[in-house]
Amino acid sequence: MTHTTQEDIDTLARTIYGEARGEYAKAEGGLPSLIAVANVVMNRVQGKKKFGASIKEVCLKPYQFSCWNPSDPNCAKIAHLRPDQNETTRLCWKVAEAVARGDWPDMTKGSDHYFASTMTKIPAWALGQKPRLKLGAHLFYKIV
Fold first, then answer.
1. How many CA atoms lie within 13 A of 79 on its CB side?
2. Is residue 144 part of a domain?
3. What CATH number has the domain bearing residue 76?
4. pTM of the predicted model, to two decimals?
5. Which of 2, 46, 105, 114 could form a Cys-Cys staple with 140, CB 3.0–4.6 A?
């Protein structure tokens, strides 16, 4: 694995917050939803380098994690997020640190993609694929 910087952790925490904070409050989501998003990022870092070689590169690759898309309302919310902002941000930073260190097992069974089942249109990459995990409103897949 590549060297993990504080900038990597900050970017991963913001990605977790932007992608899964709404799932955290739900009984069927909770903490595992935050961990699973981090697992997907780490699976991409450890897999084929088409997504990037570092946590930051993987998270910021255009149109991979919607919270970083300039047109997504979450993009503005995560830009200036601080770890000490509230309970959820503190937790997102703790999850980012723990998953990046490898402290927790991969609960997504090697998944490198996911999407929210609430989307009106299934992504093209998911057509004909079987999810490895359903967690809250997210479906997780191993594509690469």
1. 8
2. no
3. 1.10.10
4. 0.95
5. 114
116 is a domain residue: no
User: How many structural domains is the chain composed of?
Assistant: 1
pLDDT tens for the chain, residues 1 to 144: 458 999 999 999 999 999 999 998 888 889 999 999 999 999 999 998 899 999 999 999 999 999 999 999 999 999 999 999 999 999 999 999 999 999 999 999 999 999 999 999 999 999 999 999 999 999 999 998
Supply φ then ψ for residue 133, to 5 degrees.
-155, 140
Is the distance from CB of 45 to CB of 52 less than 8 angstroms? yes
What is d(CA 113, CA 141) in angstroms, rounded to the nearest whole number? 5
The 10 Å CB-count burial string (b at 16+, else e) for 86-125 is eebbebbbebbbebbeeeeebbbebbbbbbeeeeeeeeee
Domain containing 56 equals 6-104
- Rounded to an integer, what distance in angstroms lies between the CA atom of residue 71 and that of residue 33? 24
Token look-up 């995560």 returns 78
38 domain residue, yes or no: yes
